[in-house]
Specification:
This protein has 212 residues and is of the alpha/beta class. The protein has ten helices and five strands; from the N terminus they run ααβαβαβααααααββ. It has a single domain, classed as 3-Layer(aba) Sandwich (Beta-carbonic Anhydrase, Chain A). The protein has a five-stranded mixed sheet with strand order 2-1-3-4-5. The N and C termini lie far apart (55 Å). It binds cobalt (II) ion.
Length: 212
């Protein structure tokens, strides 16, 4: 177990000054462009977990990705915070990609799976407990709890991709001809790599059940 000393608050401010100086040195117009406007073509919906820093994982600078994070990367259809972010991203920023990004080892997913009593979060995680019940047979068929938790992290992403894809803001954007794609990803804390879950939705047509 390696102990790491965390910077204190003056250190953080000093780091901020160094970061801003580095950015300016590498690209003198960087902050002027950011002040002028935001052109972020991506919306990231991810977990609040400090090990999953949105921009950093995909190598993007400030100004390139609009970010919404909450515990266990949920896209709840009645959450005013999520809906405000989604509407702004789709209607004002006109993002072209919505990335729903879960991560293996998610504490929120584990808390729901283990039915822990932690407080308000128990209510927030209610959709994942519902998923545990709905997918009980599929989860039971897996060899152990580690495999079940990994799969549950993925199933949660797929569920949130569906939530986003049937959201009226998104459906209206597609009906108006918007070029907008929803992706489901799962990030591994162990190797820093993102796995595409193959659940891409690029229009209301993708939501139709298979014919036959
Ligand atoms: Co998490």
């Amino acid at each position: 177990m390696c102990e790491r000393r965390h910077p204190d608050i003056p250190d953080l401010l000093a780091r901020n000054r160094a970061w801003a100086a580095d950015k300016t040195a590498a690209d003198p117009g960087f902050f002027e462009r950011l002040v002028a406007h935001q052109t972020a073509p991506y919306l990231w919906i991810g977990c609040s977990d400090s090990r999953v820093p949105a921009n950093e994982i995909v190598g993007l600078d400030p100004g390139e990705m609009f970010v919404h994070r909450n515990i266990a990367n949920l896209a709840p259809p009645q959450d005013a915070n999520f809906l405000s972010v989604l509407q702004y991203a789709v209607q004002v920023l006109r993002v072209r990609h919505i990335l729903v990004v879960g991560h293996y080892g998610c504490g929120g997913v584990r808390a729901a799976y283990e039915n822990l009593r932690l407080g308000l979060i128990d209510h927030w995680l209610s959709p994942i407990r519902g998923l545990v019940r709905a997918k009980a047979a599929q989860l039971a068929a897996l060899p152990d709890d580690a495999a079940r938790l990994d799969r549950l992290c993925e199933l949660n992403v797929l569920e949130q991709v569906e939530n986003v894809s049937i959201n009226p803001f998104v459906l209206d954007a597609w009906a108006a001809g918007a070029d907008l794609t929803v992706h489901g990803w799962c990030y591994s804390l162990a190797d820093g790599l993102v796995r595409d879950l193959g659940s891409t939705v690029d229009g209301a047509h993708s939501l139709l059940p298979p014919a036959g």
